[in-house]
């Protein structure tokens, strides 16, 4: 242990990050910036090629962040799992999606552990960052690594530290976001505290890896449940003829005891719709039903249907059917001002409208193409009088760069699921219907 701690103190520890995506690449960059020779290991040749060419594919990391680190030999990427064997510190940042039956898919972590196993050696610090269910590190990763005959807390050090990346957040990034850290044993906690203490500004030690896993799930379940609540408030407000957004903005003036969340077309991204179901799945194995999580998931996954119903009712009021109508979806990324369309509710809205016979197009300044099943759609221009030809324009993602004044002045019918037109409704040519 002392050699590892010495290497960390002297910034001589070699670091490997398994998975250089939206979590791993920023982390690898921060490690290299702090002076640690860092290699990003990924199975994607494209990612590895781009990093080694000093080109970033992550919005929050710029080419000029990578280039000096590459030039000084402090950062590189590789598809060779052999790089793990020479690492003193290995951080696992691989995806943890759900499978088709909405159950945890930890296969990426297990594959990473298999790669790691071959290079596992004494005095190695292993940190899992991928979001998973409480107990995974202790119940799955620990026994797997101890099959080597090496013992955690003595020969190697095994920790969990949840990633807290908010893509596109201008203020909080990897280094200045408080980082929760949990160890399998006290010496494991000592090792991760020493390592991350050299790279990150603020550490939050907790009592175990289970606790650290649970902190992350509480954070994201808190968001999913509150978004589910406010989506149901939107459904109730519609039936009451009340403007949901007015209510939320007024409630948000309460200086204590309230935190605003906003209704939308559904939950997107690879975290908020997914992580809480890791928790409810684990509790099911313990014969407990996490009702808030399941209910929020029901409501949030129902929102695309609510949006399509709004479109159908609005067209119907014009004595039009969805079938044969030309509908433009404005914004398809899972949230504003980013390009990521993973799990975006826009995909569901498009498929539901197509299923009813609508001719659906989309415009998104961040997403030039969009795969819907076997088909690939291309973003349609909306400059000139591009909006006049549509029977309905549905705002699904409220990118800041879109001119919503132009949208309401030109479109005959606007369905606004994000309150993006709140300031320009007075200029509307036709009807603007809010969620
Ligand atoms: N959403 C709403 N209403 C809201 C807030 C969000 O409908 O009031 C929707 C968004 O449109 C989006 C989804 O929920 O489709 C997720 O939004 P998000 O803001 O939680 O964004 P993510 O998933 O990119 O990042 C979140 C982090 N976000 C924030 O803390 C603001 C954080 O929860 C995690 O660090 C991250 O997921 C993660 O990696 O777990």
Could you explain how this protein is built, in words?
This protein has 435 residues and is an alpha/beta fold. The chain folds into two domains: 2-207, Rossmann fold; 231-434, NAD(P)-binding Rossmann-like Domain (Rossmann fold, 3-Layer(aba) Sandwich), CATH 3.40.50. It is built from 13 helices and 15 strands. It has helices at 2-9, 24-33, 45-52, 63-71, 107-119, 136-146, 186-197, 209-240, 244-251, 275-285, 291-317, 345-355, 404-410, and strands spanning 15-18, 38-41, 75-78, 89-92, 124-128, 156-160, 179-183, 203-205, 326-330, 359-363, 369-372, 375-378, 392-395, 413-416, 431-434. The strands form three sheets. An eight-stranded mixed sheet has the order 3-2-1-4-5-6-7-8, with helices on both faces. The protein has a five-stranded parallel sheet with strand order 10-9-13-14-15, with helices on one face. Strands 11-12 form a two-stranded antiparallel ribbon. α8 crosses α10, α8 (209-240) packs parallel to α11 and α11 crosses α12. It is elongated and about 75 Å long. The relative contact order is 0.08. The mean pLDDT is 96.
Summarize this entry quickly:
This protein is an alpha/beta fold. The chain is 38% helix and 15% strand. It has helices spanning 2-9, 24-33, 45-52, 63-71, 107-119, 136-146, 186-197, 209-240, 244-251, 275-285, 291-317, 345-355, 404-410, and strands at 15-18, 38-41, 75-78, 89-92, 124-128, 156-160, 179-183, 203-205, 326-330, 359-363, 369-372, 375-378, 392-395, 413-416, 431-434.
């Amino acid at each position: 242990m002392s050699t590892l701690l010495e290497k960390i103190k002297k910034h001589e520890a070699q670091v490997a990050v398994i998975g250089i995506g939206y979590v791993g690449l920023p982390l690898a960059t921060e490690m290299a910036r702090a002076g640690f020779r860092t290699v990003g290991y990924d199975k994607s040749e494209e990612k590895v090629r781009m990093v080694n060419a000093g080109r970033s594919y992550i919005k929050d990391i710029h080419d000029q962040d990578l280039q000096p680190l590459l030039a000084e030999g402090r950062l590189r990427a590789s598809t060779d799992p052999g790089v793990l064997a020479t690492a003193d510190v290995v951080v696992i940042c691989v995806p943890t999606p759900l499978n088709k039956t909405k159950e945890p898919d930890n296969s990426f972590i297990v594959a990473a552990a298999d790669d790691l196993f071959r290079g596992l050696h004494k005095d190695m610090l292993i940190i899992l960052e991928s979001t998973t269910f409480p107990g995974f590190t202790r119940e799955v990763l620990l026994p797997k690594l101890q099959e080597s005959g090496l013992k955690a807390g003595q020969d190697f050090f095994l920790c969990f530290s949840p990633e807290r990346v908010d893509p596109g957040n201008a203020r909080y990034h990897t280094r200045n976001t408080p980082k929760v850290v949990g160890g399998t044993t006290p010496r494991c906690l000592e090792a991760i505290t020493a390592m991350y203490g050299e790279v990150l500004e603020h550490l939050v030690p907790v009592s175990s890896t289970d606790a650290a896993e649970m902190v992350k799930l509480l954070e994201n379940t808190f968001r999913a449940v509150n978004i589910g609540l406010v989506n149901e408030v939107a459904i109730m407000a519609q039936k009451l003829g009340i403007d949901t957004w007015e209510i939320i903005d007024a409630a948000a003036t309460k200086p204590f005891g309230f935190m605003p969340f906003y209704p939308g077309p559904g939950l997107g991204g690879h975290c908020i719709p997914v992580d809480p179901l890791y928790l409810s799945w684990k509790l099911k194995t313990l014969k407990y039903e996490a009702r808030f999580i399941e209910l929020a998931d029901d409501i949030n996954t129902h929102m695309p249907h609510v949006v399509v119903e709004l479109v159908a009712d609005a067209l119907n009021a014009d004595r039009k059917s969805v079938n044969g109508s030309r509908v433009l979806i404005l914004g398809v990324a899972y949230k504003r001002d980013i390009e990521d369309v993973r799990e975006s509710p826009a995909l569901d809205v498009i498929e539901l409208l197509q299923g009813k016979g609508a001719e659906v197009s989309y415009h998104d300044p961040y997403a030039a193409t969009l795969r819907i099943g076997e088909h690939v759609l291309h973003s349609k221009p909306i400059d000139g009088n591009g909006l006049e030809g549509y029977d309905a324009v549905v705002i699904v993602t409220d990118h800041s760069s879109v001119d919503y004044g132009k949208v309401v002045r030109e479109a005959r019918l606007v369905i606004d699921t994000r309150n993006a037109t709140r300031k320009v409704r007075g200029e509307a040519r036709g009807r603007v219907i809010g969620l």
